[in-house]
Amino acid sequence: MPQQRPQKSLGSGFIINNDGYILTNNHVVEGADEVQVLVDDKKKYDAKIIGTDPKTDVAVIKIEAKGLPFVSLGDSDQLQVGEWVMAVGNPFGLDHTVTAGIVSAKGRVIGAGPYDDFIQTDASINPGNSGGPLFNTKGEVIGVNTAIVASGQGIGFAIPINMAKNLIPQLISSGKVTRAWLGVGIQDITPELAKSFNLSDENGALISNIFPGSPAEKGGIKTGDIIRKFNGKDIKQSHDLPSMVALLPVGQEVEMELLRDGKDMTLKVKLGEMEKGEKAAEESTKTSSDELGLSVRDLTPEEIVENQLPKTDHGVVIVNVEPDSEATNVGVQRGDLLLSINNQKVNSSKEFSEAAKKVKTGDIVRLFIKREDSTIYLAFKK
Q1: What are phi and psi of 258, to 5 degrees?
Q2: Is 314 annotated in the active site?
Q3: Which residue of the set 76, 104, 130, 353 is catalytic?
Q4: Fewest CB atoms within 10 A around its CB: which of 7, 110, 185, 228?
Q5: Is 57 considered catalytic here?
Q6: Is residue 337 part of a domain?
Q7: What CATH number is associated with residue 313?
Q8: How far apart are CA 84 and CA 74, in angstroms?
């Protein structure tokens, strides 16, 4: 049998107070059995993982040491493009390396997670820099070095320190982050969508999905709504909304300004807890194979416009058909639009679940389906 050998990895971090708490990246310590910290005077300490947040890639660890110097945390909102910054870290195992550059951009979305809001810099960031501090010229930490582009040069990304500062108290007290939850699916407004909605600009978050039982559904938000302002703050791009929601406490009532069918509206919604809400939404939207052998999803507003479908009675998309199911045997295909089940209209995954549950074992299931430019009926016995 091959022998398993322990693997080692290197990363960076920085001490944030005189109690020995250290801020780093989640991916630096994730899955670690042991964590050791080497400080500037070459002393080595065993560290304990206090809290982690995979969604923002932030973690807090702790060493038992007093009197060590610690950094001053700045205000990343005040950071300007073109401002000089310095990255400190452990690139390629070369500990306490300093590189300098400028802020190339702010608010970068690189597909790392739901709360992408990275500072882009041309200060050299290499493997091993992850978790290290990004300083401004005042000596304040304004970012946590996190990501690199393997195929590029002079491009690195850092988590804004203001985002991390909001998480640190929860990570220390409970070891995890409890976030507020609105319960919507969102997308950017393209020029084509802006034209179809008769908008003068492309600002806002377009609601493409409402999770059943979510705060959004209870508060009266509907698909096709465009949220323009949340809790008094303007939304320029759709990814602004998740970050705004996540920064608020669970249970807080927030006011939203939105457009619905070209008309301005104001709604108040009480935010729920993300972890509980996502589990409940997942259970309520399951379209398992023991129903009809089908899985579906809601159409996005963009798909409705592109396919010239009516705003109502547009159906749902079939995303999976169980290979050995009766639905497969009669010719139901992935990508079909399901318009109705036994003459009951289906325009959301929730309506699909409701209609499917009414079908009893032994009943005939009649599906009305749109495929390309034609509509057909398909029937089978459950």
Answers
A1: -145, 165
A2: no
A3: 130
A4: 7
A5: yes
A6: yes
A7: 2.30.42.10
A8: 14
